[in-house]
Design brief:
mainly alpha; Rossmann fold; three-stranded antiparallel sheet; 46% helix; 9% strand; globular
């Protein structure tokens, strides 16, 4: 890469979301033309995303969901685009209104809290990370995510058992926190119109670390434990992973997508976590 190209690549430009109507028309056409598989053979979720959940998602997505509402919401924010390592990177820059300073078998001898986490991880590795294994090994094989909006939706819904339960409840009319059916479809539709279902899997392919390896991170770190997370990390494990652990707290609700589902609770935890790094430890 030449010097002039490098200089150009550091430029930041304003960005505005403009999804053409023909893209949305094609999306609705594909949704309406969905060919359904047979219903799952059991009455619970262990085989994956259930047919009834997908059919209700498709009904709402194809007849009531309004992407223009979400587009306007995005365009009300300051958005920018730049190039890093030959890739266009889109980002939103909104300053906080608060002051922030810079800155196999279970092993023997586990505590009750550690044993619980071990069993949760054991279940996850045996039943819950097939999607991640596929993206880790063969992300470019997932052509269905680019060709079918319903395939993309089912893939994104089946992240983990607890998150799927919460998402399914949203389409049953009983949303958990801010995890409404519109919030779910905003995420799926944005992935569809940008055609990033396959490329987003490259993050898993490029990762050379284990999913839950102890990494010995020495920068100041904080851990908030949510009851419906993939697993509830014991403080003893958090201290091994983050020797400079400045905050640890267990809250009483939310799951893996805490920032999405309960944004106020998540924000409160972030602010509490790093309050000690602010001058004089003042709150904001």
């Amino acid at each position: 890469m030449t010097t002039s190209t490098l200089e150009t690549a550091t430029e930041v430009h304003p960005f505005h979301v403009e999804v053409t109507e023909d893209v949305l028309t094609d999306l609705r056409r594909r949704i309406a033309a969905t060919r359904w598989p047979e219903k799952e053979t059991i009455a619970y979720e262990s085989q994956g995303v259930q047919l009834a959940t997908m059919q209700e998602l498709v009904r709402y997505w194809g007849t009531e969901y309004d992407f223009r509402r979400f587009e306007a919401r995005l365009n009300a924010l300051p958005q920018f685009i730049t190039e890093i390592d030959g890739l266009d990177i889109h980002f939103i820059h909104v300053e906080s209104p608060h002051a922030l300073a810079t800155g196999g078998p279970a092993p023997s001898g586990l505590s009750a809290e550690e044993s619980r986490a071990w069993e949760q991880l054991k279940f996850l590795y045996t039943k819950g990370i097939g999607y991640a294994t596929e993206m880790n090994l063969r992300p470019q094989t997932l052509y269905g995510l680019a060709d079918s909006p319903v395939a993309l939706a089912a893939w994104m819904l089946d992240h983990d058992a607890r998150s799927y339960e919460d998402i399914a409840r949203a389409f049953e009319g009983d949303p958990m926190g801010s995890l409404t059916r519109d919030e779910v479809l905003d995420n799926i539709t944005l992935t569809w119109v940008t055609n990033t279902g396959v490329s987003s899997g490259h993050l898993y392919w490029e990762n050379t670390l284990g999913f839950f390896d102890v990494k010995g991170v020495t920068v100041p770190a904080a851990v908030s434990v949510f009851p419906r997370e993939l697993y509830q990390a014991p403080r003893s494990w958090a201290e091994q992973a983050y020797p400079n652990l400045i905050y640890f707290n267990a809250v009483d609700k939310d799951n893996h997508f805490a920032a999405w589902q309960e944004p106020e609770l998540f924000t409160t935890e972030v602010r509490a976590a790093f309050r000690s790094l602010r001058p004089n430890g003042r709150s904001s």
